[in-house]
């Protein structure tokens, strides 16, 4: 038997790094420069977006206020303004200002029937779902509230899931 001795020779497996002096930026430098440009642009866009969002909120608020103000007729505004001027502020106390002389029922009949009147007219053996479809411009929860109000008052009866208006004499 041959006794063979093993020789262990260390080998450096790290390859030699050959560097060449370059005047042009490396690909990694170009990528990092582009990355910083994009992140700066994103930061600017984010601040612009926040500014536009706050402006949009302000405009929506102003629009709501304008629609509320423009809905009231000018005659009513002057009447309430003169009524407030006539009423002494010390005796009025807390709470709402005094109401105008005219009330809802005292005025003329509106040309468009109210939701309650329409629901009462449509209660001719229809289901609630059919009522919802018959009034597409009204929200279903508002229709449901009107139906429930008529049911409690006894103006509508519900039989087998269908709604029937009772006669006005009953």
Describe the structure concisely for a colleague.
This protein is mainly α. It has helices at residues 27-71, 74-86, 89-92, 115-122, 128-134, 140-153, and strands at residues 124-126, 156-159, 162-165.
Top keywords for this entry?
3 strands; 170 residues; 6 helices; mainly alpha; 3-stranded antiparallel sheet
Walkthrough of the structure:
Helices cover 54% and strands 6% of the residues. With 170 residues, it is mainly alpha-helical. Strand 2 and strand 3 (162-165) form a beta hairpin. The N and C termini lie far apart (125 Å).
What's the oligomerization state? single chain
Q: How much of the residues is beta strand, in percent?
A: 5-15%
- Overall pLDDT, averaged? 79
Spans of at least 5 consecutive residues with low confidence: none
Shape: elongated
Q: Compute the gyration radius: what is it?
A: 39 Å
Please tally the β strands and state the result.
3
Helix-strand string: HHHHEHHEE
Largest sheet, in brief, is: 3 strands, antiparallel
Tally the helices: what do you get? 6
Helix-strand makeup class: mainly alpha
